[in-house]
Write a structure and sequence with these properties.
50% of the residues lie in helices and 8% in strands. It is built from 10 helices and 4 strands. The protein has a 4-stranded mixed sheet with strand order 1-2-4-3. Helix 2 packs across helix 5 and helix 8 crosses helix 9.
Length: 280
């Protein structure tokens, strides 16, 4: 929220606007995204032909936001603009309607006859477009695996609740659960939601020397590899890797996540498994 130097602000402003637009079009094909942008621009330019309201709300919002940005010299995160997305899509709809109407007028003039477009046909097109956009979101799994700009991210851990419920009645004193630093946040939430003391989370354990058994929640498909989890345990949870056995066993598995069990050296032996390390 600090004001930037004018040179830095002006240099970063175009990229900030591009990030906003990109975040609103994640998983949408570029031609369709440009069609939406064209529709919004037309809705602003031809507002008086499209709306009975004299005030152009889109123009007011654009002008006010630009005034604030230049007055404060700040470049907000792309997610800060999400509340304006419904306004943008409303303008897109009006612009596409304008294109449709002008196209019909052009065809009617060329053919010398009047073509009509029934409201039912328009509704079917709207439903088809909405379903297509929804399928793009589901197919690309953007709510789970991508950040606000559509890039792959480790900021999700969709099996956090399933892992919590699995460990809820299994955890005992002198045991700890480790995950990557990003996965620890949803795990902490679900631990509290389901009444599991967060002291079992390795990052909250104040006595790592007393740990006899460690569990590692790993979601490789979401970028939480065993190497990353081990590094997080060592760097942020004071986990002493040398004090534990070389081999671990997988005790829980879903389509995305595995939970590995690793015992301290000298404790009761378990089944042989795969070692959580580079060879995993």
């Amino acid at each position: 929220v600090r004001s930037l130097a004018w040179s830095k602000f002006l240099r970063g402003f175009p990229g900030n606007v591009k990030d906003m637009w990109s975040s609103w079009n994640i998983a949408i094909p570029l031609p369709l995204a440009f069609l939406f942008l064209l529709g919004f621009i037309l809705s602003v330019l031809f507002h008086r032909r499209l709306s009975p309201q004299p005030v152009n709300l889109s123009l007011v919002v654009i002008g006010w936001c630009l005034l604030l940005l230049f007055a404060q010299r700040v470049l907000p995160f792309a997610r800060c603009w999400i509340p304006l997305l419904p306004l943008y899509m409303g303008g897109v709809s009006a612009g596409l309607y304008f294109i449709h109407r002008r196209f019909l007028d052009f065809v009617n003039e060329r053919r010398g006859e009047k073509l009509s477009f029934s409201p039912w046909s328009a509704c079917l097109l709207v439903i088809a477009l909405s379903l297509a956009l929804a399928l793009l979101v589901v197919g690309k799994q953007t709510p789970y695996q991508r950040d606000e700009l559509g890039n792959l991210s480790i900021g999700t851990f969709r099996d956090a609740e399933r892992v919590t419920l699995f460990l809820k009645n299994r955890l005992k004193p002198q045991e700890a659960v480790y995950s990557s630093w990003a996965a620890n946040i949803p795990l902490e939430y679900y631990f509290q939601k389901h009444g599991v003391p967060i002291k079992y989370l390795g990052f909250h354990n104040n006595n790592p020397e007393a740990i006899k058994k460690a569990y590692f929640a790993v979601s490789a498909k979401e970028g939480h590899t065993i190497e990353l989890v081990l590094a997080s345990a060592v760097n942020f949870g004071n986990f002493d890797r040398s004090a534990f056995e070389e081999k671990a066993i997988s005790i829980f598995e879903t389509d995305f996540t595995e939970v590995w069990e690793l015992k301290r050296k000298g404790s009761a032996q378990g089944q042989d498994g795969k070692a959580p390390g580079p060879d995993r």
